[in-house]
Specification:
By secondary structure, the chain is α/β, with parallel strands linked by helices. It has 15 helices and 14 strands. The protein has a 7-stranded mixed beta sheet with strand order 2-8-7-6-5-3-4, sandwiched between helices. A 3-stranded antiparallel beta sheet has the order 10-14-13. A two-stranded parallel ribbon has the order 1-12. It is globular and about 60 Å long.
C-alpha cells in the first residue's frame, strides 16, 4: 500500500511534541509518576473576558470570510503596528486555525528552498517536505545564544548558491531553547542583501522576559512574514486561532494563500474569531506581565537547580523552554538519553535531534509548564517578587522533576 502514498508524505512521522504528550498521558494512566517536561503548552487560564466573549458568540454559526473576520484582522494589524512600528494592512492578514496552519500554507504556496537554524521547532522541516521545498540547516552554538551570527548566515547563503528563492525562518523567543535573538538588525541586513524572505514565527514574542516585543520586521518590513496567534500568550492552544501577516508588497502571495485556505479549511470557526477580537483589542498587559513573571521565576528555579558540571544550561529568556546539555559518555544519541531519563526518573523531555541537532549532541528540550497555572496566577499578588518558596508551593511537579533530573545527572 505504501506505493499509493507520496514519497514526501511517507517520510513524515508524527510530531514529536504531540507524541510525547500522548505518551506521557498513557504512562500517567498506567500509574507511573511522570513529570511532563516534554510538551510545550501554556498552563494558564485564558483571560475571563475573552472566555465570556466566546460564550456570548457561541450561537453564531455562519461562515465568516475566508480571510477572517475584518474586525479581527484590523485588531491584529493594530497589535503588530503597536509592537513593531510596521503596518501590515488588514487586507494582508490571514486568520488561520493556529499559527501552525499559517506556516504550512506558506510552505505549500512557496516555490523555493528553506533555511532554518538548528535548533528549530520540530514542524518546520516536515512542513517544508510537504511543500516539496528543500531544507538547509544552519547550526548555531550556545556561545551565540543559539542564533546564527550575520557572518554565519552569509557564509551559509554563499554555500547554498546564488539566484535561489529562500525563506529564512526565525523564531524568537525560540522553541526549543527559550533564547531571544539579540542581533535582529544584523541578520536583517544580510537578508536584504540576498533578497531573502523571512518567516518570523512570533508565537512566543509576547512571552519575552525582558518585557520587550522585538521583531525582525522592524528592520526588513518589505519581505518579513509574521505568524502568531493565541496559543501561547493567551493560553488558548486548543482554540486553534492563528494568523499570518503578509508584507504589503506580496499581494500575489496573499491571493494564493487565500485560495489555498478556501480549498482546505474554508474559514476559522466563527465564535473563536469573535473572542479573538476581544483578546487583541482588550488591555491584557497586566495579565501578560504576571504570566511572564511566573514563567521567568519557574524557569530560573529550574536553571539554578539543574546547572552543574554535568549539566550545561543557559538561563531562561522567554517562552517556557530550557535546553540542557548533559555531559556523558554512556549514550550515543540524545534520543536514547531521553528514553533512559524517562524510564529511570519519570522526567519526559525531547531529544535535541528532534530540533535539528546531530543525534550525538546530548541536548534536550525541557518545558517547565507542568504546574497548575490557574492556582499560581491567582495567588500571585505582586508579580515583581515571586520567591522560590512560591515556586515550590505552586509548581511542585516542576520542583520534584528538576530534583530527580539533577540527582540522576550527578551519576553521569
Amino acid at each position: 500500500m505504501s506505493s499509493k502514498v507520496k514519497k514526501n508524505i511517507l517520510k513524515l512521522k508524527e510530531s514529536s511534541t504531540l507524541a510525547i504528550n500522548e505518551k506521557s498521558k498513557e504512562l500517567i494512566k498506567s500509574g507511573k509518576k511522570i513529570y511532563r517536561f516534554g510538551f510545550g503548552q501554556s498552563p494558564f487560564q485564558i483571560p475571563e473576558k475573552v472566555v465570556d466573549t466566546l460564550k456570548l458568540n457561541a450561537h453564531k454559526k455562519e461562515y465568516l470570510p475566508i480571510q477572517g473576520l475584518p474586525e479581527l484582522r484590523e485588531k491584529i494589524s493594530n497589535h503588530l503596528f503597536k509592537n513593531t512600528g510596521v503596518r501590515y494592512s488588514k487586507e494582508n492578514i490571514l486568520i488561520t486555525p493556529g499559527s501552525k496552519e499559517a506556516m504550512l500554507l506558506m510552505h505549500v504556496t512557496f516555490n523555493g528552498e528553506i533555511l532554518t537554524p538548528a535548533p528549530s521547532w520540530v514542524s518546520y522541516e516536515p512542513q517544508a517536505q510537504i511543500g516539496s521545498n528543500k531544507v538547509h540547516w544552519l547550526e548555531t552554538s550556545r556561545e551565540n545564544n543559539w542564533f546564527p551570527t550575520a557572518i554565519e548566515l552569509e557564509k551559509k547563503l554563499k554555500k547554498i548558491g546564488k539566484n535561489k528563492n529562500i525563506i529564512f525562518i526565525l523564531n524568537s523567543p525560540n522553541n526549543p531553547s527559550g533564547a531571544i535573538c539579540k542581533n535582529l538588525k544584523e541578520l536583517a541586513q544580510v537578508a536584504k542583501k540576498y533578497k531573502l524572505i523571512i518567516l518570523s514565527d512570533e508565537i512566543y514574542t509576547d512571552l519575552s522576559f525582558d518585557n520587550r516585543y522585538k521583531s525582525i520586521s522592524e528592520f526588513y518590513p518589505k519581505a518579513t512574514f509574521i505568524s502568531g496567534g493565541l496559543s501561547k500568550w493567551c493560553g488558548a492552544g486548543g482554540w486553534r486561532l492563528g494568523f499570518l501577516a503578509v508584507p504589503n508588497e506580496s499581494k500575489q502571495f496573499m491571493n494564493s494563500l487565500k485560495s489555498l485556505a478556501s480549498e482546505s479549511y474554508s474559514t476559522v470557526n466563527t465564535p473563536t474569531q469573535f473572542a479573538a477580537v476581544e483578546a487583541y483589542k482588550g488591555d491584557y498587559e497586566q495579565y501578560k506581565l504576571k504570566v511572564r513573571s511566573i514563567l521567568n521565576s519557574v524557569g530560573n528555579y529550574v536553571y539554578n537547580n539543574l546547572k552543574s558540571n554535568k549539566v550545561i544550561i543557559n538561563p531562561p529568556q522567554g517562552a517556557f523552554y530550557l535546553m540542557p546539555e548533559f555531559k556523558n559518555k554512556k549514550f550515543k544519541t540524545s534520543s536514547k538519553l531521553c528514553e533512559v531519563i524517562l524510564n529511570e526518573t519519570g522526567v519526559a523531555m525531547l531529544p535535541g535531534s528532534d530540533f535539528g541537532f546531530k543525534p550525538d549532541k546530548m541536548l534536550t528540550r525541557l518545558s517547565y509548564t507542568d504546574f497548575d497555572g490557574t492556582q499560581f496566577f491567582k495567588n500571585v499578588k505582586d508579580y515583581k517578587t515571586i520567591s522560590d518558596e512560591m515556586v515550590r508551593k505552586y509548581a511542585p511537579n516542576v520542583v520534584e522533576g528538576t530534583t530527580k533530573l539533577s540527582n540522576w545527572a550527578k551519576n553521569l
